[in-house]
Here is the input.
Amino acid sequence: MEHSYPEDLLRRMLEVYSPSGHEEGISKLLAAEMAQLGYEVSVDEVGNVEGRAGSGSPKILLCGHMDTVEGFIDVKKKGKVIFGRGAVDAKSPLAALICAGARHIQDGGKGAVLVLGVVDEEGKSNGMKHYMSRAKEDFDFAIFGEPSSAYAVTIGYKGRIVFTVVCKTSPGHASAPQLFENAAYVAIRLIERLRALDADWKGKGNGDLFEIPTLCVTLIKGGTQDNTVPGNCELTVDVRVPLSIGVQALKTQITRIIDEFKASEPRSEIAVTFIDENEPFQEESGSKLVRAFIESVEEEKGKDCRLLRKTGTSDVNDFVRRFKTSAVVYGPGNSKLDHTPLENVSIEEFYDSIEILTRVLKKISG
Here is the structure.
C-alpha cells in the first residue's frame, strides 16, 4: 500500500455524497477499493459492504458507517486538514479501519478480519440491524469507527429511549377557546412534568452526564388550522440512558409519570408509544483490547491514551448487546465538528490513527 493511498481513498470517499438512504455510490466505491486491497468483498441487500481477509483466530470486526447527515461540503485540502461531509463522522475512521485491516493481513498478521461498512447509522441503524438479523458468526474483538481523536479511545456510550406521546381533545373554534380543551396546552403541561423529571435526575447526579439520564423533547406537531383550537398534539422525546439504571427501569419510570399525568387530565386522551431503544454499553478499562490501544498510542506518539465515555449512542450498543464481544469505538477527528458545516480532519492525525490501529491489531492477534 503506497503511503499516499489512505489520503487518496479518504478524498474519494468524501467526494461521494452519501446521506442516509443514498449510500449506493459509496457502497460501490468501497467494494471496488477493498477488492483491490485483497479483501473478499460482498454487498448485501441493503447496501452494507463486507470485506473479509485472513483466517483463523482471533476473529476481529472493524465496523464503520458509510452514511452521513445531509449537507454537502466542498471537498478541499487546506493546509494540514481536509474538509468534506463525513471527514469526521465517520468516513475518516472507516478509511482508517479499511487501511489498517489490509496492512495487518498483508504484513502476515494472524486472525480473520471483517471490515463492515454499514448504511443508515445516522438514520434508524437499518444497516446494522440487517447485518445482525442474519449474522451467524461470533467475534473476539470489535472496533467501531467513530471520532474519538487518534489519541483516545471510547469505552462507553449511554443508551437511548425514543418515545412519542399523542394528546387528543375535542377541537373547536378559536374564537371561543374557553369552551374547549387545547391539546397543545395539554402537551405543554406534560412537557413541564417531563422537564421536572429531568431536573430530578440531574439533581441526583454528581455532575457527570454519563452517570445520569437526560431527557429532551425533540419534535412537536399539532393543530390543523389557524382558526381552530387544536384537537391533537404529538411529542417525540429522546432520553439518554446511563449504565447504572438501564432501559427497562427508565421506561417503567416514564410510564408511571405519564399515567399519573393522564389521571390529572380527564378531558384529554393521552397515549404513549415507545418507538426505539438501545441499551448502554461500556468496555472494561483493563480489557486486552483497551490495553492494546493504551500501549499503541504510547508507542506511536509517546503520550497517554485518554479513555472516553460519551453521552451519545451508536451501532456498538446493539452489537455488544447481541454478540457480547469485547468492543471499543475509535477514529481520528474532533467529534465537536460532527454534523457541522466546518467538518474537517487533520491528515497527520488520520495517518497516526492507521498506525495505531495496525499496532492494536497486531497486539490483540498475538
